[in-house]
Design goal:
alpha/beta; Rossmann fold; 2 domains; 4-stranded antiparallel beta sheet; 3-stranded parallel beta sheet
């Protein structure tokens, strides 16, 4: 589908291709010492986070420069890291980010942040970009996060879900319960029976039993 280029003859396929290309599927974010997330990135307008988050600083800087109203972004940072201040900007060629904690004498650059803190910033950028994709899928977003970050993450997802569709795969009951509080939507469990994988309560017609009861 990505290679399809004959939209004039097959407009329906072209429409599907454009929809799929707009989706963002975030499987994981590398946070090791050599990760591109820890490095400065090119200073260009970046409304949507890439799948490997190499443009994290540019996405956050775009919010600061273009939106210029960072009340929601500042609130999301304070919700996760009380009293902390995020800085994202460029020096003409490169975008850089840093995070200043209230009990520390200086701000920490991306290469100095912990894995969990950096991953949370990636999730924040994926869910608060200047232009959100029509579908955001997150695979086990709780991985590497401190347990205290799960309720703020659920609130972040809940806010973003008002603007786009979000698909979450998680092994965390804590996150699933927090998401139900924030969105009113309960998790669907994936089960395996006799080697067959299925969604609990899903019928052959594609309906969920509790939805039919409603």
């Amino acid at each position: 589908m990505a290679a399809f280029r004959d939209g004039a003859r097959y407009p329906e396929l072209e429409a599907i291709r454009r929809v799929l290309l707009d989706w963002r599927l975030y499987h994981d974010f590398r946070t090791d010492a050599g990760s591109p997330v820890r490095e400065p990135c090119h200073a260009i307008t970046t409304p949507t986070l890439s799948q490997d988050a190499h443009d994290l600083a540019a996405v956050l800087a775009t919010l600061f420069v273009i939106r210029q109203d960072t009340v929601e972004l500042t609130g999301a940072i304070d919700d996760a890291f009380p009293g902390a201040q995020l800085y994202a900007g460029d020096d003409g060629s490169w975008c850089r980010l840093s995070l200043k904690f209230p009990d520390m004498p200086r701000a920490f650059a991306a290469h100095e942040l912990s894995d969990g803190t950096l991953k949370y910033l990636c999730l924040l950028a994926a869910l608060m970009g200047y232009r959100l994709p029509s579908l955001v899928a997150l695979n086990e977003p709780e991985a590497s996060l401190h347990p205290s970050l799960l309720p703020p993450l659920a609130r972040l997802i809940g806010r973003s879900a008002r603007s786009t569709r979000i698909w979450i795969v998680t092994h965390s009951d804590v996150l699933a319960d927090a998401l139900r509080v924030e969105t009113g939507i309960r998790a669907r469990r994936v089960i395996k029976t006799g080697g067959e994988t299925s969604i609990e309560g899903l019928t052959l017609s594609g309906q969920l039993r509790d939805d039919e009861d409603d």
